[in-house]
Design goal:
- By secondary structure, the protein is an alpha+beta fold.
- 24% of the residues lie in helices and 39% in strands.
- Strands 1, 2, 3, 4, 5, 7, 8, 9, 10, 14, 15 and 16 form a 12-stranded antiparallel beta sheet that branches. A two-stranded antiparallel sheet has the order 6-11. Strands 12-13 form a two-stranded antiparallel ribbon.
Length: 282
Amino acid sequence: MRRARAALCALLIPAAVPAGAATAALCARLDDTILSQVETGPVSVIANGCRIDGLLTEVEGEIHRFDRIYVTGDLAALLPVDGAARRLPTDLRLVVAGGRLPQVFSEGAERLGITELSLRQTAPDEIRLSGLQRLISGETLLDWSARLTGLPDDLSTPRAFLSLHLREASVTARFDGGFEMSAPLVRFGNVSARIGWPGWRNLVEQEVAPYRTPVISGQFDQLLRFIDALPRPDGTLRLSLGGAGVTALQLALLQNADADPALPGRIAESAALTIDWDPAAP
């Protein structure tokens, strides 16, 4: 098990290098700005980027722990000086080695090994994102990718993101029954509580009922089949988007209390949403 983890780390993680003045300054600025909102260990310099030894953050009252984080790429774009516009780096790569996400997994999370996120700019206003979650054994648990267009030149203002357009996305999640997944928290007014998977399934079924259309009704049935397999799913879940995609403006409209109840279904249909749950053979 340790050898598998070591081989995986050697494959993905940049080696430590002597600190160049420019890179060291960027790592210090990363620590002072973006990381100032969370609890971290030391931040040091690696090849073309920074290493963060230990990060703790609290979400909905639960502590999420990450053992080591490696960030490489054009960090100067994310950390501008002298009032310059904040831009997306053209070759950002984020690797998380080890950690625990208690809100997602209640058992089996010690098997989580490497999480990798990469961002690549493929056109002036287009990026491709991809991510992997590997187990300590090297097996892939989660594999996803997405393509976005409409990138703003300046990331400093939230309104700039309304031009974003998710053109396509795919997610493949493989489960072997070795993880016990925790039911998500449900908010009731100002209180959050766990209601268990049967109660959560009923809630999901009620929530998606108004969105069903003849085209995508079967996709929601697949989602409910996956929920029925929880808390220890054994099989492969696949989700994909394409078609006309989904725009940031459409997502913003969904937050409006007066939005048309049928809007989510129309968006899912125009984006050619597909969901497939393929349980393992008994």
